[in-house]
Fold:
Amino acid sequence: MNWLKTSIGRLRVVGFWEGVSFLVLLGIAMPLKYWAGEPLAVRVVGMAHGILFLAYVWCAVQAAVEHDWPWKRTALVLLASLLPAGPFVVDAKLLREPAPVSR
Structure:
């Protein structure tokens, strides 16, 4: 559980679950509500997604402040939370950058 000790690690974990919850909300809960008449799934998954969304924003701001990110990088990370697969793309493209080599 070393990944929870850093702000980037927490952002990656929360981003993963936020992305999963968004996809479940859009791909499973919403169709259940509108096509099967079962709104409970949207209430449960929607609440979980809302909490995870707030946690993602919090972790993103915390990582941006701690690592002195430029405003464009911070904006991209925050914008990603509005797209269904955004957190996965951010994780792959922005958060897994190799560590600088020290000489």
